[in-house]
Amino acid sequence: MSRRESPPPPSPPPQVLGVRRGEVEPDDRPERAEPLSDAEREIIQDTWGHVYKNCEDVGVSVLIRFFVNFPSAKQYFSQFHDMEDPEEMERSSQLRHHACRVMNALNTVVVNLNDPEKVTAVLALVGKAHAIKHKVEPMYFKILSGVILEVLAEDFPEFFPVEVQMVWTKLMGAVYWHVTGAYTEVGWLQVSSSAV
């Protein structure tokens, strides 16, 4: 039975980096993201090369798991918010398109890890668009980061041993830090009635 037919049980919603029930508290955010070392950047870029060869399929796997395990996230997607069946999601051209956008944004981050200004600019655009235009609660970025890490570790076990997973966890923490910084910058204060 494939992962899409029987996804793992959902993880509890994360409560880290200052995000609680749809809020970004500036006082709770660390002053800066933990920087990646040269060796860590190299590990990320090397492993990403294997992932990005299959970016659409990996992105679709990520979004299907995200929406199956956290169905409340679908409220932000009018084109597929009523889809329940993972196979229907997999066939959706709109979901595939968004999966490619997610993977391409992550690719831009990975390719530019040696250019912190570019990474900051890209993630600020992502954060501001999701805060202002789409009104997505920032906690969903933390959840999505965890789903991405799970899928990468499961689909590419030969490239994602525990040590590599730890480096990727650090990267995803930095991504989340930058995105929530953009939320803070635009004055985000959205209280959720039911986040997950």
From TrEMBL:
It comes from the Eukaryota. Its EC number is 1.15.1.1. Residues 1-38 are annotated as: Disordered. Residues 35-184 form the Globin domain. Its main location: cytoplasm. GO terms for molecular function: heme binding; iron ion binding; nitrite reductase activity; oxygen binding; oxygen carrier activity; superoxide dismutase activity. InterPro entries: Globin, Globin-like_sf, Globin/Proto, Globin_lamprey/hagfish. Keywords: Cytoplasm, Heme, Iron, Metal-binding, Nucleus, Oxidoreductase, Oxygen transport, Transport. Residues 20-38 have a biased composition (Basic and acidic residues). It is found in: Cytoplasm; Nucleus. The keyword Amino-acid biosynthesis does not apply. Signal peptide: none annotated. It catalyses: H2O2 + AH2 = A + 2 H2O; Fe(II)-heme b-[protein] + nitric oxide + O2 = Fe(III)-heme b-[protein] + nitrate; Fe(III)-heme b-[protein] + nitric oxide + H2O = Fe(II)-heme b-[protein] + nitrite + 2 H(+); 2 superoxide + 2 H(+) = H2O2 + O2. GO terms for cellular component: cytoplasm; nucleus. Pfam families: Globin. Probable multifunctional globin with a hexacoordinated heme iron required for the catalysis of various reactions depending on redox condition of the cell as well as oxygen availability. Has a nitric oxide dioxygenase (NOD) activity and is most probably involved in cell-mediated and oxygen-dependent nitric oxide consumption. Under normoxic conditions functions as a nitric oxide dioxygenase (NOD) but under hypoxic conditions the globin may switch its function to that of a nitrite (NO2) reductase (NiR), generating nitric oxide. Belongs to the globin family. Monomeric. This is superoxide dismutase. The gene is cygb2.
